[in-house]
Predict the 3D structure of the following.
Amino acid sequence: MSVHFGDDFVFGAATAAYQIEGAVTAGGRGPSIWDTFSHTPGKVEGGDTGDVACDHFHRLEADLDLLAELGVDSYRFSIAWPRIQPAGTGSPNQAGLDFYSRLVDGLLARGIAPFATLYHWDLPQALEDRGGWRARDTAYRFADYADIMATALGDRVARWATLNEPWCAAMLGYAAGVHAPGATSPRAGIRAAHHLGLAHGLGIHALRASTAAPLGLVYNIHQFYPASDSDDDLRAVAVADATGNWLYAEPVLKGRYDELTWEALGRHTDWEFVAGGDLETMSAPIEFVGLNYYSPSTLRRGRVPQAAPTPWVGAEDVEWLPARPPVTEMGWTIEPQGLTDLLQRFHERYPGVELIVSENGAAMPDRPGDDGVVHDQDRIDYLASHIGAVAAARAAGVPVTGYFAWSLMDNFEWSFGYSKRFGLIRVDYDTCERTWKDSARWFQQFLATRTLA
Ligand code: IFM
């Protein structure tokens, strides 16, 4: 059986600024929390930093040509806030605006729809020095930045996301300490989650004033399964959902926090940072939600509470079972059915919102053959099976309108540095040379027919 995706379905590839751009001091860019974090010994594998990354900043035109050759409908990129406001406040840095303006115009000239994400984790360091996402003020500074970007690019960007994966920004960054800024306080993680949601709502208001494009945000809603049908294991999933998923989605899509979210997080916070009117601001109407999916997890009621610091704030007595094989280089279970299930259950909980698979892909071992090419049949299988999983969700009535492969090219995988490769296109980190992997050729051929065999 084959599945065909009509022309109204959007296929694309995704990247993020700090992961590919490099050129961290070029054009007046200020330091971000990821510059500080990656330069702190012991924080990133191999001492890797984003100083050069894929040197995309200097290779923009050639990278846009790669996208055109791939044949994508859309490109999802993120804007580095510290290129626009080097110290996180004040008037915009023209060189930064010019770079993204060239990026957007270059996409449009190639017939590719620009999909911009405003915040993919590179907070200006100056704002972190004033409290970062622990501070309510950061949400208002984000709205100023959103306003600047909407004014500059609102006539040309086809789709805007305010945030990428607020769970990672809040919990990996402020509770578990494995992402920038490296804080290890559950309370700070929850505050950050709320202020990120507030920033999203304020950002939507700012964007709305200058663009008619669809607006939304991107989540990594986790797909959880209970280890058994026991009440304990079902409760483990409910708690993990309430604290790891609905903490982010419920205020935005329903204007409230779930009862179980208040309850489970109550041991860490008194919620004093939730001000009157916040939930209304956070739930400003949006057109779409992006869901990033890589792998599901199986949970049971934990026998031993998780040791701190953990990103699973509020779910400390939930146990994550070891990943079932087959796994990717990240050690993540390969389970396409998880994507169908995620799309279905998100749609059931939040009907009426358009969904986009805004990231999906796999880090694989990737050894170039004697011909210098990476013959990554494993990645092709991963992509094909997950695009099939999207088709299954659509067939079941879920309004999924797009799929973005992560990632266009190998890049800086946060605390794993350059040790994990997710790209369709290989990057030689000594020369920054790009080489097409078999998966890139496969995606190109697939996009030519939009038909999955
Ligand atoms: O590389 C990241 C990306 O920045 C956010 N989503 C998950 C990807 C793979 O870990």
